[in-house]
Amino acid sequence: MASLLKSLHPSQWSLGLWRNPDFAKLWGSLTITHFGGQVTFLALPLTAALLLNASPFEIGILTALEALPFPLLGLFSGVLIDRVKKLPIIILADVGRGIALLAVPIAAWTGHLSMNVLYVVGFLVGVGGVIGWPAYQVFMTERVGRDNLTEANAKIGISDSAAQLIGPGLAGALIQALTAPIAILFDACAFFVSAIMLRGIPPSATDAPTSKPRAIRTEIREGLVTIWNNKILRACVWAIAGWQVFRHMFIAIVVVYAARELKFSAGHVGVMFMLAGVGSLAAAALVGPLNKRYGFGPTMLAGLSGTGLAWVIMGSAMGPTWLATLLFAGGLFVLDLAAMTFFINYLTLRQSVTPHRLLGRVTATMICLTVSTAPLGGLVGGWAAEVFGLREAMMMAGAGALILAPLVAFYSPLMQMKELPPVEEPGELESVAEEHAGD
């Protein structure tokens, strides 16, 4: 707790990366979109469940469509990001997602709101994410330097934590006062404000594209081969891809579970999700000391196990309202404490071991591969909730993650990894023989 309070003390805001104006603007824009994202995270499924009376499986389809752009476009976005300047891509992605989200309140206002509208909006927001998020990560790495990645990701963790600490309560209040579709208007505006902030970042020599245009297949293959030949990146791919199935089972049903199974109002759900922000904030402060004491890899694996435990706790919420609230909110706290611990280390690891000229391709390819199973998770979560029940589907997600964690510990090098490994520089694939090898 002392380290957590120390990280929030005003004196710390003049130190380290806070003195880097480019990082400060990047951090500010991401914080704004994180706050807006809290609204949509609650409002989109509540719009489907409460206004359109959607079934759990229909909400599972919505979750799957939001994740579908990652396996569809992830490999191509990596090539694009390495070929062009990153900042315009990030700004374009923000503006595009803002425009897509505007369709929900407009459709509600004109009386044309339907599940098909939500499906299209969810897919388009996912397209913006598959392009904008890896571009953001590469751009941040270029601007802060590899030596500052752990600090940068921890500060971004604080941003996400603050959004989750305050955002859900505001989101719940907005949804209850204005209805869910109208509340989504605030998320659309957040993307527009973020784009305006990012336009204030001046150009730099690091913005130059890192790859020369070649055949798209060659560049995609180079990213895939780099990941396959790096045992750490390869292990992260299969571990996180498996975990995403259970995570998106959870995402597909959690808001509906709270509203229908536990009978919580939108405001009640929003307040409870604030506990997730406390968990993320604690993780951002604790991950450094945990890495020093237990090692980089073991800390990651502990975070992975913790997410499964959290889903089991949430699935066990029942009884009087106070008890159900305590279990549900407690599970959210454990979930974000564990998930943030894992992902701060994972992002730092991925950015640290990737050669600079391949950052865009490897980042986008890793996102593509690890999120490729997310649509399956959304569909399975919706189907399981409809066939077995919402509570049972939540418990299934938790059990799956708890089984996955020891498998990752046994079959990957993460358990033995105490410190960050050095960058492994691969050779470029330039000859025809190399390009077609293994086809």
From TrEMBL:
Cited Gene3D superfamilies: MFS general substrate transporter like domains
GO CC terms of this entry: plasma membrane
Ranges annotated as spanning the membrane: 26-52, 59-81, 87-110, 117-136, 173-198, 236-259, 265-287, 294-314, 326-346, 358-381, 393-411
Domain of life where this protein originates: Bacteria
Keyword Transmembrane helix among record annotations: yes
Membrane topology: Multi-pass membrane protein
GO MF entry, a single one: transmembrane transporter activity
One Pfam family of this chain: MFS_1
Subcellular location: Cell membrane
InterPro entries reported in the protein's UniProt record: MFS, MFS_trans_sf
Keywords of this entry: Cell membrane, Membrane, Transmembrane, Transmembrane helix
Protein name per Swiss-Prot or TrEMBL: Enterobactin exporter EntS
